[in-house]
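# nightly structure sweep
# worker-07 picked up a monomer target from the shared queue
# config: single-sequence mode, recycle default, output format = C-alpha cells
# input follows
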Amino acid sequence: MMWFEHGKTITSSKNATTPTQQEKSFEELTALLDKINPEHPLYQQALQDRFVMGVRLNKFDEIEDDFNTLQAQSNVPAYLEEAFGDYWAAKGSPHKALAIYQAIEQQALHNKLAVSDGLLHKLSLTASDAGKFELAQQYLERMNSNVYINDYTRTSKILNPGYDSRYFGLARLALWRGNSKLAQQLIDDRLFNKTPGDPWVMLQKAELERNRGNYDDAKLWAEKKPVIFLSKKMISKKLVITWLKPP
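# output follows
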C-alpha cells in the first residue's frame, strides 16, 4: 500500500505544473515519511524524492536534515547528485555546485552519454557566478542552438526549451566580458528581427541599456513592454536570464 501511495505521489509531482501542485506533492511525501519505518526500503526513496522536491520549492530549512543524511551516503543516483548541486547553487555556493555538476558531466562523458542542455545551462550559470566567464561561455556554446528540436517520438518538431537560455546567456556573458557591442547586436537582432514585440526581449533590452548607462533608453524599453501576469515559478525561471551584474 505504501509503495502504491509513493508511486502515486511521485507521478503527481512529475506532472505538477504549478507551485501549488508541487507544494501538495511535498506535503504528501512528508506525510508518507512520517508513516514509514526508517529501516523500510521505501523510506530512502521517499527521502530522496522529498529532498529533490524541497530544493525545487526552496524549502531549505525543512530539508537541511535530509541533505545532511543523504549527502553522507555513497553511490547516490545521478538525479539526487544533481539536486545536491541545485541545493548549493540556490544557497549561494557556486563553486560547490559547479564541482558537483562537473562530476555528473564527466560521468556522462565517461559512459559515452550526451550531456543534457539542462545540465549544460546549470554548468554555465554556476561557472558564471564563480567568475569563470570563459568556461561559462564554453558550456553555453555546447547547448543546442536550434530553435526547434525533435519531440520524444522524433516525428515532430517542438520549441527548444533551452534556446532562450543559451541566447540570452551568451548576450549576458558578452556584456560581462566587456563586449557590449556584441551584447547589443544579439539583443537587437531578437528584438527587431526574430521576435519583435516579445516582452521578455524588451526587458533584456531595458536591462542592457541600464547596464550601459543609457537610463532614459532603459526606462523607455521597460515602459514599452506589455503588462504580464506571472506565477512565481515563471518569474524565477526568467530571473535566471536577467542582466544582473556579475558577482
